[in-house]
Amino acid sequence: METSRFTLPFLLVATSFFLSLSAQMTGNFKCGKPRDSNTTCRSLVGYSPKNATTYGNIQTLFAVEKLRSILEANNLPLSTTGAQRVNPNQVVRIPIPCTCSNGTGVSTGVPVYTVKQGDTLFFIASEIFGGLVRFQRISEMNKIPDANDIDIGQRLWIPLPCSCDKVNGQVVVHYAHVVKPESSLGVIAAQFGTDNTTLAQLNGISGDAQLLAEFPLDVPLRACSSSVRNNSLDASSMLLPNGSYSITANDCIRCSCEASNNWTLSCEAAQLKPTTWPTCPPSQCQGAENLFLGNTTSTSCGPRSCTYAGYSNQTIFTTLSPDPCSGSGGSRPSGNYASTFSPSFSFMVVLIQCALFFVCLL
Ligand SMILES: *[C@@H]1O[C@H](CO)[C@@H](O)[C@H](O)[C@H]1NC(C)=O
Ligand SMILES: *[C@@H]1O[C@H](CO)[C@@H](O)[C@H](O)[C@H]1NC(C)=O
Ligand SMILES: *[C@@H]1O[C@H](CO)[C@@H](O)[C@H](O)[C@H]1NC(C)=O
Ligand SMILES: *[C@@H]1O[C@H](CO)[C@@H](O)[C@H](O)[C@H]1NC(C)=O
Ligand SMILES: *[C@@H]1O[C@H](CO)[C@@H](O)[C@H](O)[C@H]1NC(C)=O
Ligand SMILES: *[C@@H]1O[C@H](CO)[C@@H](O)[C@H](O)[C@H]1NC(C)=O
Ligand SMILES: *[C@@H]1O[C@H](CO)[C@@H](O)[C@H](O)[C@H]1NC(C)=O
Ligand SMILES: *[C@@H]1O[C@H](CO)[C@@H](O)[C@H](O)[C@H]1NC(C)=O
Ligand SMILES: *[C@@H]1O[C@H](CO)[C@@H](O)[C@H](O)[C@H]1NC(C)=O
């Protein structure tokens, strides 16, 4: 018994060492950790066009239903039109639907690209889609018998890499970042507010020596915590990273995520014409009728706020923060408080260990 207690960890460490030595970036993202993933989710890719283009062209290329989703992901004003120019090498964040399948994540059936004269799979992957996907992957997923032989007019599914897995126990937004030449895990980590160890583990590599330029790297973006209920119609789309916003509840509510706001989702009335409702429901907080959504009042005991908690086809839910006057901060509000995420990086080290064990068990 004593020996087996020690043999297993040793084996695991040895295996992980061996794995990390043999690992190479594949351009595919892991997706579908048992019990720690959703099968589908929204993911992001960072697209950098090789030639000047427009937001409208990018929307078409990536088959994004609404231009607004691109504006939201890039913190661009709603007045931005599809004709707005995008310069070469400017990076545009594009939301894509993600599905975990067979251990990897791929964009759900989109985008679909129609082969034009002079195209090769390599050109489509590296130039048109900016290196977000490997040409071998397009070939494999479209079951093309000969990668050198594609026909003009042929329709190809471009399987963009994505993931829905938690990272270090946190629900995150996965972002496909195309690695620039001479970059390093440390530089990328600093740019996206993560750390080099997390990036290395997530991508199954051991360090900078295995970081390949022009390959997509899976970067976990921390999302703002929100009070949106899990049964709300927008439960899955309110997971927003720093520097993005989302218009929700039939266009009645605008929520945004800024790291400077303590990583807390901030929502208020959008002041737009609602889509399916004749008018927007009043956004007074349930339980404090003088408090509106997005308002924070100061009471003699401290601040009290009214936050957005999702919507149903009939109403907008709100959450009133605990009354600071009732007790020593430990008391919870009247029933409808639902904090979805509780960022706690203190468990990180333990979770990294767990993740390591997991990799080894596979
Ligand atoms: C799966 O999605 C639900 C709501 O859409 C969310 O509450 C849950 O945290 C997600 N789980 C993971 C592992 O992302
Ligand atoms: C699943 O992935 C493995 C290895 O990654 C591969 O050999 C197998 O063919 C894949 N199965 C399907 C159904 O794609
Ligand atoms: C960019 O423009 C050049 C010159 O017009 C052209 O040869 C090249 O194919 C274009 N690249 C893409 C990805 O469209
Ligand atoms: C992360 O950065 C630290 C300090 O620069 C370095 O010692 C460590 O080896 C790096 N880890 C990886 C996995 O690159
Ligand atoms: C939604 O949240 C409630 C309470 O927090 C929980 O009991 C329930 O299991 C959750 N449902 C889903 C589908 O996550
Ligand atoms: C959040 O995004 C803003 C720009 O929108 C950027 O200036 C800031 O550095 C980011 N903060 C973090 C922690 O990522
Ligand atoms: C920031 O948020 C955390 C929890 O998300 C909370 O514990 C902390 O008090 C907040 N800090 C400030 C300054 O509001
Ligand atoms: C509360 O919110 C309403 C509507 O968003 C706004 O008109 C009002 O000025 C806010 N009041 C305070 C005290 O912030
Ligand atoms: C709201 O949704 C419920 C079930 O999801 C449905 O029974 C009801 O008819 C819907 N109400 C309206 C006004 O659409």
Automatic annotation (TrEMBL):
Keyword Membrane in the entry? The reply is no
Q: Which SMART domains match?
A: LysM
> Which top-level group of life is the source organism from?
Eukaryota
| Annotated signal peptide | 1-23
Q: Which UniProt keywords apply?
A: Signal
Q: Where is the LysM domain?
A: 111-158, 175-219
> Under what name is this protein listed?
LysM domain-containing protein
UniProt xrefs under PROSITE patterns: LYSM
